[in-house]
Amino acid sequence: MWQGDVDSAYLNAKRKIKQYIRNIEGFDYGMYRVDQALYVRSCLYFYTKNSDIAFALIYVEDVVCTSNSEQFKCRLFSALDKKFGFKDMGLLTNYLGIRVRQTNKETILDQEQYARKILKRFDLEVGYSNKCGIPMETNTKLKKCESIGGKQCNHETGKVPYREAVGSLMYLATGTRPDLTFVVGQLGRFAEHPTEQHVGVLKRVKRYLLGTVNKGITYDTRMTCNIGVYLEGHSDSDWVNDLDTRKSTTGYVFTLMGDAISWTSRRQTIVAQSTAEAEYVAACEAAIEGKTLMNILDEMLPEMKRMISLGVDNQSMATNPTFGRRSRHIDLQWHYVREQVRKNELYMLKVKSENNPADLFTKPLAKAKFEILSSRIDMRMRPPRSA
Fold first, then answer.
1. pTM for the full model?
2. Dihedral in degrees, nearest 10, Cα atoms 106, 111, 113, 116
């Protein structure tokens, strides 16, 4: 993979309004909404002709290109240079704060530098004795501030900038740290009125981060050649785990050749009446995401296997076409998963809870299980960043 950058990108945007004045020298260039005028097309482009295959990922002025032909890459970057003014930055090493390390065997993504900035910014660059092995203790239940046992919750959270810290961690969780997704999602629910309990969990997350700053996702480049390209998903739910709303939590993760590419942990929009219903809703949300990913992959790799494999704890409601007393009330919007099964575009696979990586996104786990499931989506500790 290679990277490049468009020179003075905002000056290349086509203006939809007339410009009557110019800034004097010394002011930052740019106009109102010029970024939207520049970034109006889809961000992923692909090219196939004869034996040449190439993909270009574009985010505003940052361009990433991967191809089986370096000559094609050179032609593409040369054309961009003639059109806009373009700088070829060589092999991809950093993209939007994500470090990329490439070898003949694997590609590794991590955000070690950004993680260290978080620890330093929030005064948590502390000694090794303060590290911990999991981001959230098992059986931890968070709730809004209410009177508990006759005592009022303490609103005092010291000088901890709770919202800023959770927001910073969220960028990690959505980038290269799926192991943080669940706990960060839980903390984000209490950003308006955090209590000492929430701050305590936040500090534990940072202690965990201190010991895992160099953790990231590994993509094995040899897998494509050996067994082909396949998309696999896993979904799970934790029934009525939200103590304030009694809503359940959906969690899913999708892997491409065994390596994580999409994941989420979020509160469901309905109050599920049973564990089976919560699992069904989670499977439906995962099926929709799987269809989106498959549509992209179908265009990129037309020869790819079409059916999506989705591992779940409870597959009976998706594969059984009849409605029973406990399932006939379910809203029509959640029956999308059944339609996909009937069309043979989705295959539901029963997976034991101890082997389901989606458990990472629905509940706090013990250390042994947490590490096993993290390894299943190819999350590994990498050598520390060189100075």
1. 0.85
2. -130
Taken as a whole, the chain contains a residue count of: 387
Q: How far apart are CA 196 and CA 162, in angstroms?
A: 11
Sole residue written with tokens 């991590």: 110
- Please name the residues in contact with 34: beta carbons below 8 A apart, sequence gap of 6 or more: 10, 13, 15
User: For residue 318, what are its two tokens?
Assistant: 């998706």
CATH superfamily of 224-381: Ribonuclease H-like superfamily/Ribonuclease H (3.30.420.10)
The CA angle 16-19-22, to the nearest 5 degrees, is 140
Cα–Cα dist 60/66, whole Å: 18
243 neighbors 143 (Cβ within 8 angstroms): yes
How far is residue 363's CA from residue 359's CA, in Å, rounded to a whole number?
6
pLDDT in tens, 345-361: 888 889 988 899 999 99
- Give the model confidence (pLDDT) of 105-164 as tens digits: 889 999 999 999 999 888 754 554 578 999 999 989 999 876 444 344 444 456 778 899
Residue-wise over 100-138: b if at least 16 C-beta within 10 A, else e?
bbeeeebbbbbbbebbbebbeebebeeeeeeebebbbee
Residue 298: alpha-carbon gap to chain centroid: 21
- Residue in 151, 296, 184, 277 with CA at minimum distance from that of residue 231: 296
- Per-domain boundaries in the chain: 2-92, 116-211, 224-381
